[in-house]
Amino acid sequence: MQRVRFGDLDAMQHMNNVEFLRFFETARIDWFSHALPGHAPGSRRAFGFIFAECHIAYRAPAFFGDEIRTWIRPLEMKRSSLRLGFEMRVEADDRLVADGWGTLVGYDYGAGEPRPLPDEVRDRIAPLLG
User: Fold this and answer.
1) Pairing between strand 81-90 and 2-3?
2) CATH number of the domain at 2-128, please?
3) Which residue from 1, 32, 55, 99 lies 20 to 30 Å from 82 (Cα-Cα)?
4) Helices assigned H by DSSP within the chain
5) CB atoms within 10 A of CB 14
6) Which residues contact 14 (CB under 8 A, 6 or more apart)?
7) pTM for this predicted structure
């Protein structure tokens, strides 16, 4: 869960649209720590992911102090990519403030090029699809 801070607001006093992506990114990293134990998103020596595409549908404004809970779910897994869906709701009233998806591409940081998803990644994520 993440709280909307004063610095997250725009001139209209609701959460700035760019902050929704930051909230999604933070939730995505948390999700990976549970779905792929041992995955080190900050390590450039190991297999990782590059965020290739994102779609955000803004459903309602979020305001200063709102506690936002973001749910992440894998939607689709291909040879070298993973699409994660997300939904953001205000904890106090279950108001949907945004939903959407992001596509991540498997990447070998050591070699500096895209790679297919390793079997151990596929094995952990496949049961979560749907």
Assistant:
1) unpaired
2) 3.10.129.10
3) 1
4) 17-35, 119-125
5) 19
6) 61, 62, 63
7) 0.89
pLDDT (tens digit, 0 to 9) for every residue of the chain, 130 residues total? 999 999 999 999 999 999 999 999 999 999 988 988 877 766 666 678 899 999 999 999 999 999 999 999 999 999 999 999 999 999 999 999 999 999 999 998 888 889 999 999 999 999 999 7
Q: Rg for the chain (alpha carbons), in Å?
A: 16
- Residue 103 β-bridge partners: 53, 83
The single-letter code of the amino acid at 4 is V
Q: Quick check: 61 and 96 in contact, CB under 8 A?
A: no
Query: Residue 30 is encoded by which pair of tokens?
Result: 């948390």
Distance CA(108)–CA(110), nearest Å, equals 5
- Using left for φ > 0, alpha for ψ between -120 and 50, and beta otherwise, residue 47 falls in beta
Residue 91 identity: E
Nearest-angstrom CA–CA distance, 49 and 43:
11
- Domain regions of the chain by residue span: 2-128
